[in-house]
Amino acid sequence: MTATPSEVAKRLRPVVTRMYLLYFRQTTQSSISTAQLSIMMNLQTHGALRISQIADLESIRMPTASNAINHLESLGLVSRVRDVSDRRGVRVKLTDLGRTELTRIGDERDKQMANILAVLDPEQLEKVQEFIPTLEAGMEVFDSRRMGEK
After folding, report:
1. Is the distance from CB of 95 to CB of 43 less than 8 angstroms?
2. Across the chain, how many H-helices and E-strands are there?
3. Is the separation of the CB atoms in 39 and 56 below 8 Å?
4. CA 76 → CA 34, 92, 150, distances in Å?
5. What is the reported pLDDT for 148?
6. E strand residue ranges, the chain
7. Residue ranges in the chain whose pLDDT is less than 70
């Protein structure tokens, strides 16, 4: 019998929530919030984005996205550039410092995630490894739909 998205969600949500809490509680505190880090990760993945696209990807309102961008810009982690397709528009991109900081935070959090995964036996770890491309593909489709691509 094939599980429905709702059935899978009911089992996956508590595990993901608990992992999320442990993962972020064990990492060094930073002046970058989790939401701002997510914005930076989206900029790394998608390249320069309009603030409206960032808001869509993050499921937040434009003013919230703008405030987050302002904070990241004040830290020198992102910069605004003219949109070449629409001279009136502005896109946000990662700076070199932003890429460096994203790598540093990523390395630290990779270590924390490895600590959580270290309790699994090799067979369990392999199953997690095999599942990652499925989650990545799902997020790609989800992001594309949120950005208005089909």
Report:
1. no
2. 6, 3
3. no
4. 17, 12, 34
5. 66
6. 49-50, 78-83, 86-94
7. 26-29, 146-150
**Count of positions (residues) in the chain:** 150
Q: What is the DSSP string of 9-26?
A: HHHHHHHHHHHHHHHHHT
The pTM (predicted TM-score) of the whole model is 0.75
What does the block give as tokens for 132? 């990652």
Assign 18 to helix, strand or coil. helix
Q: How confident is the model over 85-97, as pLDDT tens digits?
A: 777 789 999 999 9
List, as one string, the DSSP characters of 72-135.
HHHTTSEEEEEETTEEEEEEEEE-HHHHHHHHHHHHHHHHHHHHHHTTS-HHHHHHHHHHHHHH
Nearest-angstrom CA–CA distance, 21 and 65: 23
